[in-house]
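Please, structure for the following, as tokens.
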Amino acid sequence: MMELTLITGRTVEQGCTKEYAKISDEYMMSVTICEMNAEDMKRLGVKDGGNVKISTDVGSIVVKAVTSRRIRTPGIIFIPFGPWVNAILPADTEGTGMPPLKGFKVRVEPTDEPILTIKDLLLKIYGKK
């Protein structure tokens, strides 16, 4: 397990087109990834495309680790905006109306656990209604 710093935001693809069909496989595949520095992946023992569990004090998610072409500094990971990353970010806006989205310490570890579907993720967070 490693402690790394999470940043999140819109990807270029999210910024250039409207997000649609958020229950589609295509959308799920685009937001259930964790871009990582190649050195960090090697130290963690994770191969490109392997699942990782990302944990904070709020909760944990499983996403697919991918080698980042953008992150050059070890110790940084990026997860695109979406329900999965939202599940591990604190909701407290400290009066700003905007939750914090960057600079969180997270714990990252390899896992064989599956990535939850949107339905299963929402049931995990909110329970059965």
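Strands lie at 2-9, 33-36, 51-55, 60-67, 76-80, 102-110. The two ends are 34 Å apart (CA to CA).
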